[in-house]
Amino acid sequence: MIVAGNASVDLLLGPVAPWPTPGTETLVDQIDWRVGGALGNTALALAGMAVPARLVWDAGDDTMGAWLQGALAAAGDAPRIVRAPTSVTVALTHPDGERTFVSHLGHLAVSAPDALTAAVEEAVPGDVVFVGGSFLLPRWRPALGAVFARARARGLRTALDTGWPPAGWDAEARRELQDVLAHVDLFLPNLEEARGLLDAPEAGVDELVRRLDDLAAGRCVIKLGAEGAAWWDADRVRREAAPAVAVADTVGAGDTFNAALLTAWSERFAWPDAVAAAVRTASLAMSTTPRRYPTWSDLASASAASV
To answer: What is the tens place of the pLDDT at every residue in 105-122?
Structure first.
């Protein structure tokens, strides 16, 4: 499996309420410094499940880049170092559970997709190529359709989780993604991203699943957070409910879901079993501190037992 995309440093501070007045100082009770970005969180989850993957990513040539490289050292391949400050996101948490993000694109602004292109050429038929956080990689975006087309021509399977477009879901973002989806075998948006892509802010899950099935070349699985996930299968909408858990932390929930689903897909699980494994993995991870993941052998055994 090839896992490519954005990694960054996340600084979480909070809770903050009300929003600070400009020119004042606000004290918070909590701070957390951690790996961020779609690749970063996906790589941590794969490592937690003891699933090997080839990582394709960049980091900046500064202290934060060195820290990020060390934090992901056990997860797989080292990054390519680029001459730029490392991307940082400050997340301010609020008492109602909402978060406000302030990000600096940093090294992601200059990251180029040539390493991904090389990885595609070196992969073997049947391999999965996943790109996460593509909307935060401006130099990757115009090349992504061609990279995925080449991957499929070589017999690889392609998967994509774009994240939220920085400029919002305007006509350009929708058109760009629709062009790329012509070469994507598995698309992994969350609920609000699906609504944004389809310009359907009030649409229900069933409608979104049906419309995305018509739009994408392959399969789409919509992540629903605490409600689990939904997808189109055998001419109907199917859902996998999430277990009721006491949530400790939701950061990286979607990326953890992706990691498990991609692994199940790589192992040719039936789709209901694959989505169930992804929902269970994300639910366990989000309810534990320090975060825990089921091993892939445990998930495979559970899937076999359900047959």
So the answer is: 999 999 999 999 999 999
For the segment 174-183, the average pLDDT, to the nearest whole number, is: 97
Cis link prior to 290 (omega < 30° from 0)? yes
CA end-to-end span of the chain: 25
Q: What is the DSSP letter of 181?
A: H
Q: What is the dihedral of CA 124, 2, 254, 197, to 10 degrees?
A: -70
Task: Give the chain's radius of gyration (CA, Å).
Answer: 19
Q: What dihedral angle (degrees, nearest 10) is formed by the CA atoms of 23, 93, 75, 228?
A: -150
Q: Which domains does the chain have, with CATH numbers?
A: 2-7+36-86+107-306 (3.40.1190.20)
Assess whether the previous peptide bond of 201 is cis (omega < 30° from 0). Answer: no
- Distance, in Å, from the CA atom of 276 to the CA atom of 241, rounded to the nearest integer, reads 8
Backbone angles phi, psi at 267, to 5 degrees: -90, 10
Q: Could you give the CA distance from residue 155 to residue 153 in angstroms, rounded to a whole number?
A: 5
Identify the DSSP state of 196: H
- Chain position carrying tokens 């058109």: 175
User: 44-87, pLDDT tens digit by residue?
Assistant: 999 999 999 999 999 999 999 999 999 999 999 999 999 999 99
CB neighbour list of residue 282: distance below 8 Å, 6 or more residues apart: 242, 253, 254, 256, 257, 260
Distance CA 193, CA 165 (A): 9
CA separation for the pair 276, 273 (Å, rounded): 5
* Cβ atoms of residues 54 and 69 within 8 Å: no
**30 pairs with which residues across the strands?**
14
